[in-house]
């Protein structure tokens, strides 16, 4: 990690390093139906973040293993949404940096085992975050005794937007596949960072940055990912990582 504890912000132009203002997001491109063999699919390129989501099912729940199904409850009248997140080797390295857990340059067996465990824990936690964000938007009562599978692959992580992009890609893939939903879930991340004012020496201030980059997450005290169901004007999830005050969370 760099010795610097803050990032540069131009107060005269109200610009971050990538020329965005504090409350602007990076360009986002969306493609639907990229996998013709799946029921539904979506690709999102959000800045440097690239995510693919694929939806299959519904399939019969009987005999299926899922962390979202309690033992003995396969025959419920509501369906189950099963979410699996996977990060590419490039994405996991950036994610470890984002979580302030830089990868060791050592390549012995112990280091590889620790990296694998960390990757698995990040993917498991991310799967749960995505599931919680979108499950309320799906009409699972339409799929009794069934499972709808959502698989998300993060090709590249360009910042705090990788979870947001995954949530949006999953929701878009469900809708593109004709899975009955109450509406689209959108999502965005915000990071609380200490800024070094480029126009004033030795002057630092704290600010909330929308759609943070890897560097902005790295030097931030924490970040939040907010997911929103427009059709019901409802926040489906507010996920926080790191340390933030109540005032910072409200501002984010």
What's a quick, concise take on this entry?
The chain has five helices and ten strands, in the order βββββααβαββαββα. With 252 residues, it is of the alpha+beta class. Strands 1, 7, 8, 9 and 10 form a five-stranded mixed sheet that branches. Strands 2-3-4-6-5 form a five-stranded mixed sheet.
Question: How would you portray this structure in words?
Answer:
It is a single chain. This protein is an alpha+beta fold and 252 residues long. It has helices at 89-98, 109-134, 161-176, 214-218, 246-251; strands spanning 7-9, 28-32, 40-46, 49-60, 80-87, 146-156, 185-197, 204-210, 220-229, 234-242. It is built from 5 helices and 10 strands. Strands 1, 7, 8, 9 and 10 form a 5-stranded mixed beta sheet that branches.
**Proportion of residues in extended strands:** 25-35%
Low-confidence stretches: 101-114
In angstroms, what separates the terminal alpha carbons?
25 Å
Q: What is the percent of helical residues?
A: 25-40%
Could you describe the largest sheet, including whether it forms a barrel? 5 strands, mixed
* Gyration radius, rounded: 19 Å
Strand element count: 10
Q: Name the structural class.
A: alpha+beta
Outline, from the CA principal axes? Answer: elongated
What is the fold's blueprint, element by element?
Layout: E1 7-9, E2 28-32, E3 40-46, E4 49-60, E5 80-87, H1 89-98, H2 109-134, E6 146-156, H3 161-176, E7 185-197, E8 204-210, H4 214-218, E9 220-229, E10 234-242, H5 246-251
Parallel strand pairs: 1-7, 5-6
Antiparallel strand pairs: 2-3, 3-4, 4-6, 7-8, 7-9, 9-10
